[in-house]
Every structure is written in C-alpha cells, then in structure tokens.
Amino acid sequence: MIYFISDIHEDINFGGLKKYLEIATDDDLLIILGDIGLNFRDTAENQAFTESFLSIKKNIAFIEGNHENFDYLNSFPTEIWKGGLVNRLTDNIVRLMRGNVYEIDGFKFFTFGGCKSSAKWKEKGLWHFGEEPTEQECAFAVENLKKHQNSVDYVLTHKYEVEGLGSTRCQLLFDLCRYIDHNVNFKKWLAGHWHKIFNQDEKHLYIYDQLLTIDELENQ
Question: What percent of the chain has pLDDT over 70?
C-alpha cells in the first residue's frame, strides 16, 4: 500500500508518521510531501530527530519542502529508483527529485518539491539556499513530462502555486503548475505546505497529518 502525509517538521511522533510506522509492512511505502527538516537547525533537538528519522526501517520516500537543508540532502548518493533519480539516504529512505516520474505499484507519480519561504523565515535564520526551483529544473520537468506523453496518474508537489492562496509566490513554480494544469493528464494532484486538509477542487487536494492511501484516491 502507498500512503501519503506532509509537513512533519522535525516531529518523529507526528501523527501520520507514527501511525504508518505502527502498521506498515515491508511492502508498504510512505510518501511525504515535504518539510521533513533533516539537519535543518543546529540544535540537539534537530540532531536527535535526524538520527531517529534516518534509523526508520520502514519504506519512506519524500520530496523536499521549503524548510529543508538542501546541501545536506544533495550530499547523499544518487541512483535510479522506480524509473527516476533519487538521493539514497538509507536502505529504506529516498528523496524523490524535482521533475522526475516514478512508476510505483503500477502508478506513475510526477514529483516536484520546494517553494519560496516568506521573509520571516529568512529573518529568523531558518532557511537554506535551494528551496526555490531553477529554470533548469523546471525545463527538465516539462521535457520529462513530454517523454511520458504528458500523462501521469498523480502529481505530487510540496506547494500547489495558485492564484489567491498565500502571498509568497515563486513565479517559476507558478508557471510550472499552470503548464501541468493545462497540458498534463492526471487523476489527482496532492500538495502540502498549508498544514490543513482540504480540496482546492475535485482534482487538487491538500494533505497534512492524516494518512491518505492510494486506495482512497483511486476510489474518489
């Protein structure tokens, strides 16, 4: 079974994560839609979280949010996994990289992590360079989608950049989201970032702390 949550923010006891670790089998996979916080702050608490997360023996894949240490994530080795490029953190944990398409349990997932933080986080020093996508990453995403005939089952992003929701916009991410909406066939688009569970419309869903399963998505 494939499960989804988002925005655990350095909390090893985060509701959806804790439940997944209790019920998961070796055949299951949890996909987290960003804001993990590995090695994000220079504190004992963050170090303890990072060590605990990396010791997890259940299968986890994640995209990055904006509250991540990108240099740290980029330091892990890269490999091909399920048809796309990943950073391999442990035997059980991989980072899904921007613009890739992965084929997991018969489903195609397009992933694109990151977004722009508001100024307050930079003022607090809780920020790492690399949160916003580059032109090259967006161009790669578009070309890769075209290689897949602009058709996937699910789009997974940390933020769905859309008019009228939030005041901090990354223009490149906004343009990519519009391209996907207008050109790509997909069943559902899952995003996090807002720490709320709600539907933008019938195809765009925001998730947070409650485990969502692929079966629930397929039956909607």
Answer: 98
Residue-wise pLDDT for 178-196, tens only, equals 999 999 999 999 999 999 9
Query: How large is the greatest C-alpha to C-alpha distance in the chain, in angstroms?
Result: 47
Rounded CA separation 46/175 (Å): 34
Q: Count each helix (H run) and each strand (E run) in the chain, helices first.
A: 7, 13
Q: 28: which DSSP letter?
A: -
Q: Are strands 204-206 and 188-191 parallel, antiparallel or unpaired?
A: parallel
Could you tell me the pLDDT band of residue 164, with boundaries at 50, 70 and 90? low
What token pair was written down for 220? 């909607």
Q: Taking the CA atoms of the chain, what radius of gyration do you get in angstroms?
A: 16
Residue 165 has pLDDT above 80, yes or no: no
- Residue 101, classed as helix, strand or coil, is strand
Q: Which residues contact 35 (CB under 8 A, 6 or more apart)?
A: 6, 7, 8, 9, 65, 66, 67, 68, 158, 192, 193
Cα separation, 60 vs 96, whole angstroms: 10
Task: Record the tokens describing residue 102, joined without a space.
Answer: 């992965």
**Protein fold of 2-218:** Purple Acid Phosphatase; chain A, domain 2 (3.60.21)
- 168 CB burial (10 A radius; 0-12, 13-18, 19+): middle
Average pLDDT value for residue range 198-212? 96
pLDDT at 121 over 80: no
Q: Which residues contact 130 (CB under 8 A, 6 or more apart)?
A: 68, 70, 71, 74, 114
